[in-house]
């Protein structure tokens, strides 16, 4: 329970807490102590140097083990809408934010919330659609919607690659913002829907804009998406997904109790931080810092999108997908 509360605090923008010794399990304390021994320290540092000296060492040397499946998933899910509309097969109708799948209502959780607040009454079809989508995404990990279905995630991931290349040359910066901004905006968007009777967020959400553009054709709203991507390339890495998007946050709440998690193993970790460098939400990987893990195995926090990039980046396999309560790793 304490883990879930901490996880939700992190999702809302809370800073990672500093642990006192009595909050760390005996097994983890022993392992931290063992790793601090001069011989073990030397071994670990030598391994890190060895890794960094690899000629292929760069952001792009990581494997595409999960990325290729994620990109395929995003493309397939979004193409399903496009193909259904253009060939009138009526398999999926609508867009990613609200649709009907073989006649069955599906609704993105955040859109459903915005619509309910704007219209101030509960539509039964919307409830059915929301519960269905909620259960589906809960099963695969809450914020998995972000990295496995969201069209903006894909373009923003490509923009991030450009950003990192440019930052490496000193042509782009990554201005840090306060993560609590997303919680404040979440409340503002909800209040706007309630106060105006319009789903204001939907008008500026790049998720809906891209989904509709793919299905019905490009519109002027794409200029807004281009603007957001420019901010991400030049000034703030993953600006929208890290600091603004209420959709990601809504799915994050589901993620706090989802059966599929990323599991961290303290014993296998070198603490060099490759995982945190690639992560969209590096605060969930706080336990990978030296002496910060409170147990020998831990699940990463609710804000995790289950993208698998930390797994691809970790040279020692300290991070893996896992179904809670089972010994099985994926
Ligand atoms: S945070 Fe929002 S825009 Fe980013 S991937 Fe998630 S749903 Fe898409
Ligand atoms: S913790 Fe790993 S799986 Fe989760 S968002 Fe970060 S990189 Fe992706």
Question: How do the strands and helices of this protein lay out in sequence?
Answer:
Layout: H1 2-11, H2 26-36, H3 38-52, H4 67-86, E1 92-95, E2 98-101, E3 104-107, H5 109-119, H6 124-139, H7 144-149, H8 151-168, H9 180-196, H10 200-204, H11 206-216, H12 222-234, H13 239-243, H14 246-255, E4 260-265, H15 274-278, E5 297-299, H16 309-313, E6 319-323
Antiparallel strand pairs: 1-2, 2-3, 4-5, 4-6
Helix pairs in contact: 4-11, 5-9, 8-12
One iron/sulfur cluster binds at residues 146, 150, 152-153, 207, 240-241, 245, 247-248.
What percent of residues adopt helix (DSSP H or I)?
A: 40-55%
One letter per element, helices H and strands E, the order comes to HHHHEEEHHHHHHHHHHEHEHE
Total E-strand runs: 6
Number of domains: 2
What is the rounded Rg? 21 Å
Sheet with most strands: strand arrangement: 1-2-3
The average pLDDT score comes to: 88
Can you summarize the main beta sheet?
A: 3 strands, antiparallel
Distance separating the two termini: 25 Å
Name the beta content range: 5-15%
Number of helices: 16
What best-fitting shape do the alpha-carbon axes yield? globular
Structural class based on helices, strands and sheet pairing: mainly alpha
